[in-house]
């Protein structure tokens, strides 16, 4: 029966296409939250909007990974049918011809969701849209930071680690220096059917430049955010050097700064470590008086040069 209808539909659709005819189902679009939290009381509302151009709706069907879990057929009584969706349930009171609400999800329900809309006879125009949803199990604790040294001399490389408890999906880690994002470790998942919880780890190498001319205040140097992609399926087997995020810093005038890391999962989870305060061993006195000390070195740095010029002008 359903097969017959599909075949008819295909034939009609083909004829219509050949004919250059108008569609009676337009602008189908799906709207699914990118991520929701797992567990009791949590829910996700998936919506589909469409324009039937005056035609009647025959059915709307919802699939997860191509397996149907909810169908709404206005002509039938009752109009809905539900199919097993292991690891969650459908809230019938808030599901209809436009949306379906899923409650108490677990992370194994992460994946692609589809909505398929069919207009009524005779053409049964059908269209389908798909969007991913991730059901998140966040880490239990805040990320933890360890720093090899809490005081520095110019030219030092400060090494720091950030580790995050197991979570699904593995969180990204961003390093924060005095409220600036400086580097990131992006967690990377090679298989969509891997629902394992995984921790995340990032190793930072922070190089403190010696150059004193920079005391004028140009503090942060690395041009872009240094990113490292970590594939958790081969985690630990990679060349360790590839997993190091690096940043070059001109120590600030105050000779101290804070370092922290943040674990994030899409836009629904973000938690920061305790900040670590790092100070210079023997702070240098600001040395911006010598007009002759730096000319050659700074010409390549336009921003620096202009700061320097400003300073010179001020001191004249
Ligand atoms: C449907 O899509 C067409 C073009 O793709 C657009 O011009 C029209 O405004 C859309 N209609 C609605 C109701 O969104
Ligand atoms: C960072 O982690 C690596 C690998 O586990 C370890 O060898 C190193 O001592 C750690 N460094 C710090 C500063 O915690
Ligand atoms: C990690 O960051 C990448 C790049 O910004 C992003 O595409 C991905 O969705 C993020 N993953 C998580 C779990 O937030």
Question: Could you outline the blueprint of secondary structure elements for this entry?
Answer:
Blueprint: H1 2-19, E1 26-31, E2 35-37, E3 43-51, E4 57-64, E5 67-72, E6 80-82, E7 89-90, E8 99-103, E9 111-119, E10 126-136, E11 144-147, E12 151-152, E13 157-167, E14 172-177, E15 180-188, E16 198-208, E17 226-231, E18 244-249, E19 256-265, E20 269-272, E21 276-280, H2 295-298, H3 302-315
Parallel strand pairs: 2-10, 12-21, 15-17, 16-18
Antiparallel strand pairs: 1-3, 3-8, 4-5, 4-9, 5-6, 7-8, 9-10, 11-13, 13-16, 14-15, 14-19, 19-20, 19-21
Bound molecules: 2-acetamido-2-deoxy-beta-D-glucopyranose (3 copies).
Characterization of the model:
It is a single chain. This protein is mainly β and 316 residues long. The chain folds into two domains: 23-136, Immunoglobulin-like; 144-280, Immunoglobulins (Immunoglobulin-like), CATH 2.60.40. Helix content is 11%, strand content 43%. The protein contains three helices and 21 strands. It has helices at residues 2-19, 295-298, 302-315, and strands at 26-31, 35-37, 43-51, 57-64, 67-72, 80-82, 89-90, 99-103, 111-119, 126-136, 144-147, 151-152, 157-167, 172-177, 180-188, 198-208, 226-231, 244-249, 256-265, 269-272, 276-280. The strands form four sheets. Strands 12, 14, 15, 17, 19, 20 and 21 form a seven-stranded mixed β-sheet that branches. A hairpin with a 3-residue loop joins strand 19 (256-265) and strand 20 (269-272). The chain is elongated and about 85 Å long. The model is unreliable at 213-219 and 288-316 (pLDDT under 50). The protein binds 2-acetamido-2-deoxy-beta-D-glucopyranose (NAG) (3 copies). The site of one 2-acetamido-2-deoxy-beta-D-glucopyranose has 7 residues, from strand 11 and strand 13.
């Amino acid at each position: 029966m359903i097969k017959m209808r599909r075949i008819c539909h295909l034939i009609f659709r083909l004829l219509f296409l050949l004919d250059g005819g108008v569609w009676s189902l337009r602008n189908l679009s799906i709207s699914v939250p990118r991520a929701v939290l797992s567990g009791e009381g949590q829910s996700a509302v998936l919506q589909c909007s469409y324009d039937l151009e005056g035609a009647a709706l025959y059915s709307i069907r919802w699939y997860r990974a191509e397996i149907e879990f909810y169908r709404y057929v206005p002509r039938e009584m009752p109009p809905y049918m539900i199919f097993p969706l292991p690891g969650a349930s459908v809230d019938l009171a808030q599901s209809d011809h436009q949306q379906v609400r899923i409650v108490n999800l677990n992370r194994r329900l992460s994946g692609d969701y589809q909505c398929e809309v069919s207009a009524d006879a005779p053409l049964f125009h059908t269209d389908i849209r798909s969007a991913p949803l991730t059901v998140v199990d966040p880490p239990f604790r805040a990320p933890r930071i360890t720093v090899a040294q809490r005081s520095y001399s110019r030219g030092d490389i400060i090494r720091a680690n950030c580790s995050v408890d197991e979570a699904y999906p593995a969180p990204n880690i961003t390093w924060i220096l005095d409220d600036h994002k400086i580097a990131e470790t992006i967690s990377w998942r090679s298989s969509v059917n891997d629902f394992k919880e995984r921790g995340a780890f990032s190793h930072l190498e922070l190089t403190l430049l010696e150059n004193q001319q920079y005391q004028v205040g140009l503090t942060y140097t690395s041009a872009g955010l240094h990113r490292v992609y970590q594939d958790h399926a081969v985690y630990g087997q990679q060349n360790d050097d590839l997993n190091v995020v690096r940043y070059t810093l001109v120590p600030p005038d105050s000779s101290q700064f804070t370092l922290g890391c943040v674990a994030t999962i899409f836009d629904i989870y973000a938690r920061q470590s305790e900040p670590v305060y790092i100070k210079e061993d023997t702070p240098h006195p600001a040395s911006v008086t010598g007009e002759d000390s730096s000319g050659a070195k700074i010409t390549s740095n336009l921003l620096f040069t202009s700061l320097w010029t400003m300073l010179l002008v001020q001191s004249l």
